[in-house]
Amino acid sequence: MALLRAATADLLRRHLRVPLASLLHPALSPPPQSTESSCPDDPSTPGPVARRGDFFAAPLRRWPRPLIPVSSSSSVDSTGVRLYSHLSGAGSAGGDSTPPPQQSPPAKPPPPSWVDRWVPLAARPYVMLARIDKPYGTWLLAWPCFWSITMAAMPGELPDMRMLALFAYGSVLIRGVGCTINDLLDRDIDRKIERTKSRPLASGILTPTQGVGFLGFQLLLGLPFLHQLNNLSQILVVFSLPLVFSYPLMKRFTYWAQAYLGLVANWGALIGWAAMKGTIDPAIILPMYTAGTCWILVIDTIYAHQDKEDDLKIGVKSTAIRFGDSTKPWISGFGAACIANLALSGYNADLAASAHLAWHISTVDLSDPLDCNRRFVSNKWFGALIFGGILCGRLVS
């Protein structure tokens, strides 16, 4: 028993003489005094031989390597003890202890639309080509039709609901036809504009042949609509097609393409009145048509400010470029003309509708593409206010 205690005491004394740094990292141990105390990496080489009377005669192994690697940002003090700045919080001599900046999480993808959820994959490019997923353009075509149909209703009666539904269907079709023609003719231009380069024909998802085939399909769907109209309305529909087909070319020749769009988009006001009355009353219809044209000119000029920088680079013309810094005075004049012509044509354009258009013109930020797009989209409510005013006027008259 005495011999065992003596051996244990001798082993403890030898281990206590080992520097503390050598227990933290093997590279920090003091240099060996003799070849007997070294422990080579080769496991076949025997370790140091135990002294006489040592009961722990097994070869000694190297202290396990640390789990944390030595980084280039660490420093060594005068005694050779390595300091880990990323553990202790102290940087290297003269270094910066500021933690690395945190990376912002990746942006979330936009939520799936009804097109992604319900439309088959093969049909989605055609839905996008006809802009069915963006109905605000359809509203801009439908409101002038609704205005004239309601204005033509008998005093004290609701407008013809069947006719309203028929023209809603026609507005969807004619908007799809117009967008398809526009994208076929402008596909080379659309590739150069950031907002439009992902359109189906510009991006190559659909070929021009597929676009022409889809255009013919939409025109066939318009035959039932045409069949429900009287002769004068059918003639007016046929006369509208050259306007629809030629509109995309206007931006190549004139700065007033937005005014031409107003003539095209409000043609439905003429058709709607003719469908109800069988005639055209210039004293009512022409001021209404002029008012709608001025309205479209205002909102599409705002819309064109999104692309004015790209348009200048590729040589495309628009009223946004023509008016320049004077855009607000110009569209204020056209807005006033819109309200005046509505009143002249007998519409009950109440104060709310006038204030809505004035608010858009005075507060829009023409240098902000997102704000221009928001104002364009929200102008469907201007059409709704006019429609509400006409309807109330008819019911109480």
TrEMBL record:
Q: What reaction does this enzyme carry out catalytically?
A: 4-hydroxybenzoate + (2E)-geranyl diphosphate = 3-geranyl-4-hydroxybenzoate + diphosphate; an all-trans-polyprenyl diphosphate + 4-hydroxybenzoate = a 4-hydroxy-3-(all-trans-polyprenyl)benzoate + diphosphate
What are the record keywords, sorted?
Answer: Isoprene biosynthesis, Membrane, Mitochondrion, Mitochondrion inner membrane, Transferase, Transmembrane, Transmembrane helix, Ubiquinone biosynthesis
Pathway this chain belongs to: Cofactor biosynthesis; ubiquinone biosynthesis
**Membrane-related topology note:** Multi-pass membrane protein
Where do the record's region annotations for Disordered lie?
27-52, 88-114
According to the UniProt record, one GO cellular component term is: mitochondrial inner membrane
Question: Does the keyword DNA-binding belong to this entry?
Answer: no
Q: Kindly report the protein's main subcellular placement as a broad class.
A: membrane
Under Enzyme Commission nomenclature, its number is: 2.5.1.39
In what ranges is there compositional bias, type Pro residues? Answer: 98-113
For activity, the cofactor(s) needed are: Mg(2+)
Instruction: Give the enzyme class.
Output: transferase
Q: Which InterPro entries match?
A: HB_polyprenyltransferase-like, Prenyltransferase, UbiA_prenyltransferase, UbiA_sf
Extract the GO molecular function terms from the UniProt entry.
4-hydroxybenzoate geranyltransferase activity; 4-hydroxybenzoate polyprenyltransferase activity
Q: What does this protein do?
A: Catalyzes the prenylation of para-hydroxybenzoate (PHB) with an all-trans polyprenyl group. Mediates the second step in the final reaction sequence of coenzyme Q (CoQ) biosynthesis, which is the condensation of the polyisoprenoid side chain with PHB, generating the first membrane-bound Q intermediate.
Family that this chain belongs to: Belongs to the UbiA prenyltransferase family.
Its recorded name reads 4-hydroxybenzoate polyprenyltransferase, mitochondrial
UniProt source species: Oryza glumipatula
